[in-house]
Amino acid sequence: MLDPIDRSQPLRDQIYAMIRKLILTGVLPPGGTLEEKVIAQRLGVSRTPVHEAVQKLSDEHLVDVKPQSGTRVANISSNQVH
How crowded is residue 34: how many other Cβ atoms within 10 Å of its Cβ? Predict the structure, then answer.
């Protein structure tokens, strides 16, 4: 599900691209939970680049970050996907 990390490239950008692709292809469904800690562990990276990637996805309204409640994939329309 997650591609290997290329340590010569910025981690945040790679993680952002991976998660974004998973959201837009429906692998991560709308309303699904996104756990930064789990993603970081699976990729073998610290939580910081994962958190930065999630923030960027939040800025694009692809995820909803709710303090104390967690992060979920946003409900997006087909128009937003295009």
Answer: 21
Q: What is the pLDDT of residue 1?
A: 63
Query: Whose structure tokens read 């939040």?
Result: 58
Question: How far apart are the C-alpha atoms of 25 and 81, rounded to whole Å?
Answer: 9
Q: What is the pLDDT of residues 28-69, one digit of tens each?
A: 999 999 999 999 999 999 999 999 999 999 999 999 999 888
The edge-to-edge listing of strands for the beta sheet with 33-34 is 33-34, 70-73, 63-66
Residue 28 half-sphere exposure toward CB, CA atoms < 13 A: 23
Give the span between the Cα atoms of 45 and 8, in whole angstroms: 13
Q: Are 23 and 63 in contact (CB under 8 A)?
A: yes
State how far the Cα of 18 lies from the Cα of 45, in Å rounded to an integer. Answer: 14
